Amino acid sequence: MRPSITIIIPEPYLPLDEYCRRTGTNKETAKNLIEYGKLPIKPKGLQKKGLIEINMAALTIQALSECDISLNA
After folding, report:
1. CA angle (51 as vertex; 45, 54 as ends), nearest 5
2. 37 is in which domain, residue-wise?
3. Is residue 5 domain-resident?
4. Does some domain include residue 73?
5. Of 13, 44, 58, 66, which cross-links 40 as Cys (Cβ 3.0–4.6 Å)?
6. Does any domain span residue 1?
7. DSSP string spanning the chain?
8. Is residue 47, in this structure, part of any structural domain at all?
9. What's the total number of domains in the chain?
10. Half-sphere exposure (CA, 13 Å, Cβ side) for 35?
11. Which tens digits make up the pLDDT trace of 37-70?
12. At what angle do helices 27-35 and 16-23 cross, to 10 degrees?
């Protein structure tokens, strides 16, 4: 039997400023990563100048998919 691991993502979205604070990423660098499609964000819909929120759930899934493990949702 394979072990089971539960991963809890307490905050699926983080505002850009908080993401940068927690990761030590420069805000301009983070914006460039978003522009290049390397940092996933929550869609803003019609609010083009709305709050930029980093999709932490997508980042977690991306990181896990780069490991040699099987993911079952």
Report:
1. 90
2. 13-66
3. no
4. no
5. 58
6. no
7. ---------S-SEEEHHHHHHHHT--HHHHHHHHHTTSS-B---TT-TTS--EEEHHHHHHHHHHTSS-----
8. yes
9. 1
10. 6
11. 999 999 877 777 789 999 999 999 998 888 876 6
12. 120
What would the mean pLDDT of 26-32 be, rounded to a whole number?
Answer: 98
Which has the closest alpha carbon to 64: 9, 1, 2? 9
Q: Which pair of tokens denotes residue 22?
A: 């927690």
Question: How many angstroms separate the CA atoms of 41 and 43, rounded?
Answer: 6
13-15/53-55 β-pairing: antiparallel
C-alpha span between 62 and 50 (Å, rounded): 25
Amino acid at 2: R
Residue among 59, 51, 48 at smallest CA distance from 15: 51
Identity of the amino acid at 68:
D
| Amino acid (one-letter) located at 54 | I
CA dist., res. 49 & res. 72, Å (int): 36
